[in-house]
């Protein structure tokens, strides 16, 4: 899971070294290379019959794929519109938005500790965005980035609802569906292509090493690790991503991002640690 978060975190620093590729083209090529990678990886993992089984995966599989499409597309667009730190801190809201979505749509109880975490994290995000508005910074990238955790929360809610109905969603084929949809949606918007050979090499690396492989690793890890462990380790992407972009592209996070991000990450960590200890006490 640590390796998965490290691979995920390379998106920002790599995109900062692109020469000519623009917003939708970057998204298209990364999604397309992800599709090509998964077309090789999936049969190796699940056999050649995996594609036939996808046709009978049910509505939840395709809705999950649509959610993955949103996550992939909005993430890359946001990375091209605003700083990497802004995007990653905003993305870290996924567990808290998931808790809210589960409460609203499938009736899951939200513990008091999670409500407190939502409040603190919300304050951190509000501080970060308010400071940027005060500095005249465009909010377009931030608003696009906010669609990533919304898509993630929708994805988790759909898969949990399907699980409760006795229909478990195979997430790796759902990732493939998401990448296919993302590439189809962004293809007409990416035309005419401007990417150089250097750009295509970097974007191919993102498709395989930043998306396909870590997504597969993360899905496998969820079968072994407990949910709080996955959530806590997943937060490493924020730290790794900001550091890599800072060191590898000279994009230093602003004071507002550091303060707001610290509140968000602190609230998430506290929420998961309390949950972890509570489960440990029950087991004892």
Structural class assignment? mainly alpha
Overall mean pLDDT stands at 87
Distance between the termini: 26 Å
Largest sheet: none
Cα gyration radius (Å): 19 Å
Strand content: under 5%
Q: Could you give the count of β-strands? A: 0
Task: Summarize the amount of helix as a percent range.
Answer: over 70%
User: Low-confidence segments, ≥5 residues, pLDDT <50?
Assistant: none
Supply the number of helical segments: 14
Inertia-based shape: globular
SSE string = HHHHHHHHHHHHHH
Labels describing this entry:
mainly alpha, globular, single chain, 81% helix, 284 residues
Structure description:
The structure is a single chain. Helix 1 runs antiparallel to helix 11 (197-222) and helix 6 runs parallel beside helix 9. The protein is globular and about 45 Å long. The relative contact order is 0.23. Helices cover 81% and strands 0% of the residues. The chain has helices at 2-8, 10-15, 23-46, 50-54, 59-81, 84-91, 94-106, 112-134, 140-164, 171-190, 197-222, 227-234, 236-249, 255-283. The protein has 284 residues and is mainly alpha-helical. It starts with a helix and ends with a helix.
């Amino acid at each position: 899971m640590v390796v998965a978060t490290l691979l995920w975190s390379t998106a920002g620093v790599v995109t900062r070294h692109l020469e000519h590729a623009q917003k939708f083209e970057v998204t298209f090529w990364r999604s397309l290379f992800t599709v090509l990678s998964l077309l090789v990886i999936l049969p190796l993992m699940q056999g050649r019959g995996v594609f036939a089984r996808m046709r009978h995966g049910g509505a939840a599989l395709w809705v999950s794929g649509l959610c993955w499409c949103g996550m992939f597309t909005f993430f890359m667009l946001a990375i091209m519109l605003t700083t990497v730190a802004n995007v990653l801190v905003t993305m870290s809201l996924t567990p808290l938005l998931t808790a809210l979505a589960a409460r609203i749509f499938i009736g899951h109880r939200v513990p008091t500790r999670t409500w407190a975490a939502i409040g603190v994290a919300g304050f951190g995000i509000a501080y970060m965005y308010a400071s940027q508005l005060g500095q005249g910074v465009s909010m377009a990238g931030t608003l696009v980035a906010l669609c990533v955790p919304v898509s993630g929360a929708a994805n988790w809610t759909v898969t949990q609802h399907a699980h409760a109905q006795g229909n478990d969603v195979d997430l790796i084929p759902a990732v493939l569906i998401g990448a296919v949809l993302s590439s189809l949606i962004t293809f007409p918007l990416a035309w005419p292509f401007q990417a150089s050979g250097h750009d295509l090499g970097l974007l191919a690396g993102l498709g395989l090493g930043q998306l396909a492989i870590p997504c597969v690793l993360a899905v496998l890890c969820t079968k072994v690790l407990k949910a709080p462990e996955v959530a806590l380790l997943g937060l490493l992407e924020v730290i790794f991503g900001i550091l890599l972009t800072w060191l590898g592209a000279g994009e230093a996070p602003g004071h507002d991002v550091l303060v707001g991000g610290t509140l968000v990450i602190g609230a998430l960590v506290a929420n998961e640690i309390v949950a972890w200890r509570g489960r440990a006490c029950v087991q004892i």
